[in-house]
Amino acid sequence: MTIKRTYILAIESSCDDTSVAILENDKVLSNIIATQDVHKEYGGVVPELASRAHQQNIIPVVDTALKRAGIKKEQLDAIAFTEGPGLLGSLIVGASFAKSLALGLGIPLIAVDHLKAHIISHFIQDNEAIPNFPFLCLTVSGGHTMIVKVDSPTKMEILGKTIDDAAGEAFDKIAKIMGLPYPGGPLVDKYAQLGDSDKFSFPHPKTTELNFSFSGLKTSVLYFLKKEVEKDPNFVQNNLNDLCASVQKTIVDILLKNLILASKKTNIKEIAIAGGVSANSRLRMEIQRLGNEKDWNTYIPKFEYCTDNAAMIGILGYFKYLEGSFVNQRITPKARIEF
Fold first, then answer.
1. Is the bond leading into 183 cis (omega within 30 degrees of zero)?
2. Phi, psi at residue 11, to the nearest 5°?
3. Tally of CA atoms within 13 A in the half-sphere of 61 that contains its CB
4. Which one of 142, 198, 262, 273 is at 20 to 30 Å from 50 when CA atoms are compared?
5. CA distance 48 to 51
6. CA dihedral in degrees (108, 112, 118, 120; nearest 10)?
7. Closest CA to 147 of 12, 257, 305
8. DSSP for 121-177?
9. What is the Cα–Cα distance from 242 to 235, expressed in whole angstroms?
């Protein structure tokens, strides 16, 4: 049986990275990402600067993706883009370009949920293994933290989510409290590998059911450091590795505690992680350890599919293409989107 070759151009512009990918069915031919370094001096993403940078980057990134894939735009079968959630100005740039290109080429337009795309990135062909349905996915990023039951590429249910800060946001904010530059999450991970994760103890929040909370942890670290720095002005500098290791252990333990509970409640042992924080070394290590301990089948995405990228938009776009799930030119992106 001959499988039809379907070429999809995917655009991801939900935050501060302009990314474009070309997929042939579930195979990634190119996945180009243009990062925006301008935000580092502000300690966080500035929405207006992000949208301006997207306008500058979108055409050259699309051109590079097509050339890298060896595909001409006339060969494309559909255009997929991030509908939301994200920064509205950034989303508008990607959506407007996608709509214009689809209209000009006379091909279908596919709107993709950014969060669902993170989850379905596991189905990109070059991953080591693909989850079996149904599976649970711990989806963790700078803006979202949730446990999702996945019944199909387009049918998902949130079992638990954060009631305040996301885990990635907690990493970045605590890093800032310790004087680390933005983005702080990867630096916490880096220093944590040199520290003692049992040196300092921080409280776990009390939440209902499978929900998460990280604002209390952030406050706890703030007051702890304030008290210690009053006694020793060099406390953070002298204990940075141990502080990072202890904070990282606390956040990962909170995440996995609820994931274990979700697996027990649903009796599902197909377990995946996704999102930017799924690149965290301790989370990856602990999910594998739990897999062996609890007889789970665990799925960890490649590093290039953890953070925001257009390949994940393309793979969910491909499944929606197979379903004929297209949108018209009246579609508008949304900062918040119903999951």
1. yes
2. -125, 130
3. 26
4. 273
5. 5
6. -50
7. 257
8. GGGSTTSS--PPSSEEEEEE-SS-EEEEEEEETTEEEEEEEBSS--HHHHHHHHHHH
9. 11
Per residue in 236-291, pLDDT (tens digit) is 999 999 999 999 999 999 999 999 999 999 999 999 999 999 999 999 999 999 99
Give me the phi and psi of 228, to 5 degrees please: -70, -35
Domains and their CATH numbers in the chain: 7-121+306-323 (3.30.420.40), 130-300 (3.30.420.40)
Would you say 335 and 88 are in contact if contact means Cβ atoms under 8 Å apart? yes
H helix runs in the chain, sequence order: 47-69, 88-105, 114-120, 167-177, 185-192, 215-231, 235-238, 240-266, 281-294, 310-323
User: Which token pair is 7?
Assistant: 């070429």
One-letter identity of residue 226: K
Angle (CA) 211-12-162 rounded to 5° is 10
pTM of this prediction? Answer: 0.94
C-alpha to C-alpha distance for 140 and 146, rounded to whole angstroms: 7
